[in-house]
Amino acid sequence: MENSLSLTEENYIKAIFQIGTTPESNVSTNALADSLQTKPATVSDMIKKLSHKKLIFYEKYKGVTLSASGAKEALKIIRKHRLWEAFLVNHLNFKWDQVHEIAEQLEHIKSSELVNRLDDFLGNPTIDPHGDPIPDANGQVQLGPSKLLSEMTSYENGIIVGVKNEDPLLLQHLDKINIRLGLHIEVTEVNDFDQSMQVKLADLGTLFLSEKITSQILIAKNL
Amino acid sequence: MENSLSLTEENYIKAIFQIGTTPESNVSTNALADSLQTKPATVSDMIKKLSHKKLIFYEKYKGVTLSASGAKEALKIIRKHRLWEAFLVNHLNFKWDQVHEIAEQLEHIKSSELVNRLDDFLGNPTIDPHGDPIPDANGQVQLGPSKLLSEMTSYENGIIVGVKNEDPLLLQHLDKINIRLGLHIEVTEVNDFDQSMQVKLADLGTLFLSEKITSQILIAKNL
DNA sequence: TTAAATTTTTAGACTAATCTAAAAATTAAT
DNA sequence: ATTAATTTTTAGATTAGTCTAAAAATTTAA
Hints:
By secondary structure, chain A is an alpha+beta fold. The first copy, chain A, has eight helices and eight strands, in the order αααββαααββαβββαβ.
């Protein structure tokens, strides 16, 4: 139980969470160095440390992924960040573009009691001032209302949260083309004639989908 | 202008401010080590650093005193600490004995905009939940109502904030026995028969005062 | 007023987080 | 399928803050 993270460790965990488009996707050393404004060598060292603490999975030269406990920590930090942003905007009259930097500091304050009371004080909001969802005390995210993939246009993106229809033939087809719940998806192109789509799936590249399929897939806004 | 203090430096400055009963009194290395739960050797090193930054005055083997800029920093930290405590108790329903540890973290958040907006949000309180005064944005402390030294009883203490009477003979006498404004004073004993008092003055030791004198001296609660 | 006790400082070392420069592994390109 | 370019890791140093042990200065007490 004696495992409270340092400020630096928290920042690494959060960055890994935010860079990884899906929980499975590997985050590269360079991407992390860029995001944290530090050098790849530094990241390499820290990765070893976090890996040793079992917060991330790591294979040399292959990037990192959060473990279950790592993801839990990330969600706690994001929860705090977004609750504080809500406080700053809703009660201290900050503009929504002024709160990020301050919330970056406040997110590291350690006291679950404080976070939960703040949550209550704010009326248990589900989204922050930027519209991003606020994880609850258990790390659960209330995803926004989902819509059909077929209703989306180019450049829109989100994560796959469900299928409208349980037809085994459809589900088997989706399995075959590697579409599954939780995947990040972005619409690349929509064909005006038959509404077929070109989409990009995290880590799985480009795919063509007919309207018959896109009209069965539910998408929600990503974290 | 590039002189933002580290968390550790802030804690040293605050401890020096709080241990020194008066702005002039020297704070010893050991007292600081005790207060900060560290070792004298560590304090010795940090003292050199703070001295070099001109936040404190330091003479080897003679303890330290805050400089003007050091005192300003200390007041900023204390202001933040007490404002956050007020927020935690008045708006998040914490009990007054639960807020210190959390405020110890919150006091280090850097944003004067945040502090001032928080101050406004709280209605510009002048005391925190423990009755301690909250410095304003300029570091000015609104001292609580003063009372006569003659109205105090054993163990009560405070700082000398005024004299009721401007009689030169009285003032000269006070000068002679080293009593002056700003000094911390504690009542050691009160004589039931003639109301004369034994008092302890910061750094000046014990003194006997007749009721004629104690009834002229105004005391306010110390910081 | 000299000796003993205490306080403070110095010396040398350790850890966490960082850096630069160079080596090693992977990926891309001819 | 080699070579070139890129990415990642290692090696060796650096800084802030800390420690222990020992030396030096100050204070207290016989």
